Amino acid sequence: MMRRMAAPPINPREGAGLTEALQYRLVIADDHPLFRGALREAVAGLLEQVDIAEAGTYDELVELLERNGDVDLVLLDLAMPGVRGFSGLMYMRAQYPGVPVIVVSANDDPAAIRRCMDFGASGFIPKTLGVDAMRTAISRILGGDVWTPPDVDLTGEADAASAELMARMATLTPQQVRVLMMLSEGLLNKQIAFQLGVSEATVKAHVSAILQKLGVESRTQAVIAAAKIEAGQWPQGIAAEG
Amino acid sequence: MMRRMAAPPINPREGAGLTEALQYRLVIADDHPLFRGALREAVAGLLEQVDIAEAGTYDELVELLERNGDVDLVLLDLAMPGVRGFSGLMYMRAQYPGVPVIVVSANDDPAAIRRCMDFGASGFIPKTLGVDAMRTAISRILGGDVWTPPDVDLTGEADAASAELMARMATLTPQQVRVLMMLSEGLLNKQIAFQLGVSEATVKAHVSAILQKLGVESRTQAVIAAAKIEAGQWPQGIAAEG
DNA sequence: ACCCCTATTCGACTTTCGACGAATCTCGCA
DNA sequence: TGCGAGATTCGTCGAAAGTCGAATAGGGGT
Whose CA is nearest the C1' atom of nucleotide D20? Predict the structure, then answer.
């Protein structure tokens, strides 16, 4: 898959050396003050000369960028007031194409990560990362690399788990689909049989086929699987952020 | 509206004074190491004698509580690996009814907050809170108060449908909650019996009680109901968290 | 002490579920 | 026309689920 917007190179103060007496400017944009502080400390321990600004809302971030355009790096949390999902990143990339953005997120869903990279982020750092790992990641990115969590296969499938399920679902026959939907309503075999106008034994046969095709072992697990697909329609972690 | 499970009083080392030479024990359960650290610092500056343990997963939290039952307070993030939404809180309140729990969450939806309180949390602290506000909140809660963000109207009603269900859920005994959560994982009675170390007949009795209390007629319908509570909590802001 | 209520446990019995085998039917293809 | 694959249908039988009654144990209240 192609990157849709190329991530800008991170070369603060073009023409100067990379490691010595630079005054890095970076902005931490996150609506959790405590986390902002922790992140600031983590970064401060990494770089000598660094000017870190904090933004708690997207408006603050924009204001900072307006007033001081030459920022070397933005650490952006996608879940900020005034921004939903990727809008913030998209807006950033559109308005300030020259400013590298690292997405710092509580969401570590591979699909979300890949989408961030597609939108031109210079890196993705999950909040679940430890301090040390986070530092090395940031320094790698500052060095020009593109860093993402190691276990993320950017070329891989969006969601292997649910894709697998979807594939299995697709093998269901029409009648089996009807039965599965009735299962998901909590109906008994007997009730399903009546509604479909067939015998209970037939329903049982359909249920058996469904269980086999979905790779589960009970009607309850089948219902759980079906529910996951329903919920899974929304890209990622509905019930994730807490 | 009544609190359906009373939050336990926070009076560590009963019989001793409240403010002097107490050794508070508390656990910070959050899957973001950086945030855990920041939260630890915030609390450490608040209390003199305090023993803070950290847990990055729900299993770690359980292990800590198992090994050291007399914990004075748990700061719990609802979005941890191994827990979905309120399950973690419900399970905590079922397994360790005597341990006060403060929910620390990035989600500041009033409905979610109220539901946390309904499930017996001793307080709710949004991650968007500043350090100072967070400290005063925690100290208030340690003092026995119930603290929630000021703008939350705890007296308001949730949507009638799920409120009904919530009320029914709250009548479940601790053991019944455990069984219900295992039902929601698609386990057989036999498997549940083994994990709980009781006979299968006992599990059946619990299931029967659950069905009656939830007003449903089969285990399948029970897990559907439970899933609705979990899912219904995040009505919109679907793709919000990034 | 007593009683009452609830939680938790369990065994016996009935109902439902689910696997297995098999029959019928449909449809596409040779 | 005949043939074969898959969908749909059904009966049977062992296993799982669920109901009922009951025993035990702890916790308030009087």
Answer: B205
C-alpha A165/C-alpha A157 separation (Å) is 13
User: Hey, how many other C-beta atoms are within 10 angstroms of the C-beta on B238?
Assistant: 16
Asked if residue B148 lies in contact with residue B124, where contact means CB atoms within 8 angstroms, the answer is yes
The 10s digit of each residue's pLDDT in B164-211 is 788 888 888 888 988 999 999 999 999 999 999 999 999 999 999 999
Question: CB-based contacts with strand C under 7 Å?
Answer: A 188-190, 200-201, 204-205, 207-208, 211-212, 217-220; B 171, 173-176, 196, 198-199, 201-202, 204-206, 209, 218
- Which residues in chain A (162-181) have CB-CB distances under 8 A to chain B? none
* Per-residue pLDDT reduced to its tens digit, B20-46: 445 778 899 998 999 999 999 888 888
**Binary contact (A127, B35; C-beta < 8 A):** yes
Q: Structure tokens of A140?
A: 């790698």
Measured between beta carbons, the chain A residues lying within 8 angstroms of B186 are 216-218, 220-221, 224
Q: Work out the percent of chain B whose per-residue pLDDT is above 90.
A: 25
Q: Mean pLDDT score of chain B, rounded to an integer? A: 78
Q: Do A84 and B39 make contact, defined as CB atoms within 8 angstroms?
A: no
DSSP-H helix ranges across chain A: 33-44, 58-67, 87-95, 110-118, 131-142, 160-170, 174-183, 189-196, 200-214, 219-232
Q: Which residues contact A87 (CB under 8 A, 6 or more apart)?
A: none
- Which residues lie closer than 8 Å to B212 by C-beta, 6 or more apart? none
Q: DSSP characters for A18-76?
A: SSSS--EEEEEE-S-HHHHHHHHHHHHTT-SSEEEEEESSHHHHHHHHHH----SEEEE
Contacts of A31 in chain B (CB under 8 A): 127-128
Pick from B123, B116, B31, B131: which is nearest to B73 by CA? B123
Cβ neighbours around B103 below 10 Å, total? 28
